[in-house]
Fold this sequence. Notes:
The complex is a heterodimer.
Chain A: H1 4-12, E1 31-42, E2 47-53, H2 58-61, E3 67-70, E4 84-87, E5 90-91, E6 97-103, H3 107-112, E7 120-127, E8 139-145, H4 148-161, E9 165-172, H5 180-184, E10 190-195, H6 203-216, E11 221-225, H7 228-238, E12 245-249, E13 265-270, E14 273-278, E15 285-287
Parallel strand pairs in A: 8-9, 8-11, 9-10, 11-12
Antiparallel strand pairs in A: 1-2, 1-7, 2-6, 3-4, 3-7, 5-6, 12-15, 13-14
Chain B: E1 6-8, E2 11-13, E3 17-19, E4 40-45, E5 58-61, E6 64-67, H1 76-83, E7 94-98, H2 103-113, E8 120-124, H3 141-153, E9 159-163, H4 170-179, E10 184-187, E11 191-194, E12 196-197, E13 202-203, E14 209-213, H5 218-231, E15 236-239, H6 245-254, E16 258-261, H7 264-267, H8 271-286, H9 304-312
Parallel strand pairs in B: 3-16, 4-7, 7-8, 8-9, 9-10, 10-15, 15-16
Antiparallel strand pairs in B: 1-2, 5-6, 6-14, 11-14, 12-13
Helix pairs in contact in B: 2-3, 3-4, 4-5, 5-6, 6-8
Amino acid sequence: MKTHKSTDEQHSGETRMPVAACFQRNAERVASHRCRVAEHRWVNDRYKYLRLTAQADFAGTTKPGQFYQLRCPTTDSAQPFLLRPMSVYGVGPEAGAIEFLYNVTGLGTKALATLEVGGHMDIVGPLGNTFILEPGYQRIMVLARGVGLATMAPLLRHAAAAGIRTTAILSARAPKDLMRDEFLRGTEASVHCAYDSDGSSSVEAVEALIRRLLAAEHHDVAYTCGSHRLLMLLQRVLQDHPATRGEVAMEQRMACGMGVCLSCVRLFDSEGDKQFLRVCREGPVFPIRNVVGEVEFG
Amino acid sequence: MADLNVRVGEVKLRNPVMPASGCFAIEYAEALDFNKLGALVVKSVSPKTRAGNPTPRVAECCSAMINSIGIPSKGLAYYRRELLPPYTRFDTPVVVSISADTVDEFAEAVAEMSLPQVAVIEANISCPNLEQDGMAFAMTPETTYKVMSAICRRTEHPVWAKLTPNASHIAAVAKAAEEAGAHALVMGNTVLGMSIDVRTRRPKLGNVMGGLSGPAIKPIAVRMVHQCHRSVRIPIIGCGGISNADDVVEFMLAGASAVQVGTASFLDPGVMQKIIDALHVYCDETGVEAIRDLTGQVKLDRQLSDRWLRFAQQSG
């Protein structure tokens, strides 16, 4: 238990730290970063794009699926107290640039939406685990709806850079809500769109589409985020495709975002057992097959 | 550089800043150097296995948050084998926080956790989330005395009693803990509260009621530290809404020998180090050579009321 030395090693970065083995380390270092607002604009009626810059290596340290906690500004009508977890929409090209794409919906995001270019905000991260994208993959499937599209956008870039082909299924209320260009960001993908407005986003229709696509060509993995309904659908379909892995990025009400407060638990199948896991630490990305189709507790 | 060393009874700390139980875990090693904190306080463990309370377990309020986590626990053996060892690898005293349902269970758990690698036992006799209607041992002097004396009989370790701001007569509760043998008081835990979503008409917490924490409760905690300080001789650790160095100084002036930082870490996981750095700045700027000299040094004018009464007599 003597230890000055072992902990000096821990912070030198040279040696593997003794603490690393005893918890799931998601980042070498987590800190609160003071950021400047470089860009902030509406992309449609409900979503805003936010670009922040700081003296930090966001691009080098942030991996697809990870999130940051945002200290949203306070306004006359809103004083958000807790930080707001938000998945990363993109990083770079410069090291200190990070992007978010968010739905202006609650107290925190409404306050966030008032942030002006040139203003400042603190963000804490990087947090959470990451999507697994193996270099040997040939083709991946992404199934996105709503804000899930921001979470999975970094995957498309990484897949494209690794020469992995992408099948993208985008679901939205109506064509004007789709954000197809925001999702693809210039990457190549075979894209299938589904809308509530014409019924093509119904569970039956999307299930038929996914089954057709998976039957036509092997997909190494299917990712989803943004809809519990689509998650349950994908879990069902993947039962018939044991060679296709499945991953989902999940949400839950959080406080600390680092696995400390135990607020954000959900139930998962884990090593033959059912266990409460922390969405912020063991997640936000989980194997789709491990998700317990729970009653929604909020 | 000022001397930040403090003592809580026989326990020496390199500075007065330690985490509050439940707001700290090994994962903060990603954001903090544990060798620079005053102590490491591990989240409460209960001898009984608990799944914890229903979600949502947390909601936000004005300058505060409300939580009802419910002390998820896999029991003492698991805690000893899996959870505790990582904390004992640092050159910083480890405080093990324990919670239990009955006096016997509590004393037994404290005896079992009084390990050589543990510096202090914190008896969490004040969790508002476990009992019906927020009842806890520390709600009354009688139950406080009963559980603390049973605990202190079973251990040679220093025992800190974590009290609750929900008690109506805190001086009496503090006195009971002291008489039962507590080495120090932690004042205090969260304030029992409730919050309702007016759109859905549902409570914001799965457990309906929960503990309020954050800057909103700080004046309550400062007042209670002051009341405890007037009532007991044992040291007090202040806790409740501390988010910067000025808050630490305020608690020390009210009578605290050290402090615990809780909710503030959720807003910045590195905040405890920033507070320690800022305490050096405060001491340098105000000419404080040893921070321990601040304890209880609030300037009270005991004749003020009398002078005011005489002065006020001039009015019609």
